[in-house]
Amino acid sequence: MADSTSKNQTVDAKKEANQMLNLMNIVIKEQEKKQDKKRDRKFLEKFKSKSKMNGKQSEQKKIEQNPESDVSLVDQIFRPLANAFKGDTPIVSIDCEMVEVDKFSDGLARVSIVNYNGHILYDQYVKPEGRITNYRTWVSGITPANMNGSKPFKQAITEVHRILKGKIIVGHSLKHDFSVLQMREGDRYYNEDNTPNFIEVTAGQSTFIVTKDKIRDIAKYRKYQNQNGQAISLKRLTEEFLNRKIQQGSHCSVIDARAAMALYRINEQEWENTVKQKSYCSVKEKVARDAGQLQKFFGGASQPTKKLKI
């Protein structure tokens, strides 16, 4: 009888210990959640203070092409001046709107490209490949009426690739836009005559290749990420850094492309310096790697050359 009582007490003690462990885990998780929320709040407070500073600085800045204008840099991108250059520029910004096709797949329904000054270079509604199963109007702004007279997908893709060829491409979370535009980040191919080839053909499908040095993704720029290195929405970044409200209802790809361009331009110099530094470091690494391979090929460390006696 005493043995069974002690066994029961042992079982009860184990149960209580497990319950305590479970409670401790719950408490720890709740504390972690609170800490995460505190970090997010602190980060947003920093955002607000930075955005106020950036707002004041941007109001004082004048676009280089229009030094006599009283309109801020950000305003000139959101509402491009009539006398600002309207043509093709080496740096462009892109944004796409997608609909659902063939149940749960993304299909291109609108694509917009703006130049360095915010002027529209390309803005077309596109008839996606596949059957549209959800227009996602509340987000995309696309309606069935927009598909009337829309451009065929293959024609739109060809035109977009032609505009983007050799350009520096600005955007937010560009991987989503690239996926519906038959584009991807990768190494450049070269033809036999050593000219760059931007198109990769796999299984009969052409993919437009964009090299890393040509991509300016707002979502991947460290200054525009949270403390954990995660992307922040374009809507939030625009509100905090540009003092502008976008995406109040459905999205507009032209406005989103302009917002991305403005976010890039207020940090353009710093961003480009970072790109140059990374490029320089990668070249150094490549040279060191190639030198190591040469030494290995020729049999270890290179020997000093001996002068021939005449």
From TrEMBL:
Q: Which InterPro entries match?
A: REX4_DEDDh_dom, REXO1/3/4-like, Ribonucl_H, RNaseH-like_sf, RNaseH_sf
Q: Compositional bias of type Basic and acidic residues: which residue ranges?
A: 31-48
Subcellular location per the Swiss-Prot or TrEMBL entry: Nucleus
Q: Where does the Exonuclease domain lie? A: 90-273
Source organism, top-level taxon: Eukaryota
Ranges for the region named Disordered are 31-69
| Any GO BP annotation | rRNA processing
Name of the molecule in the record:
RNA exonuclease 4
Query: Gene name, please?
Result: Contig5941.g6365
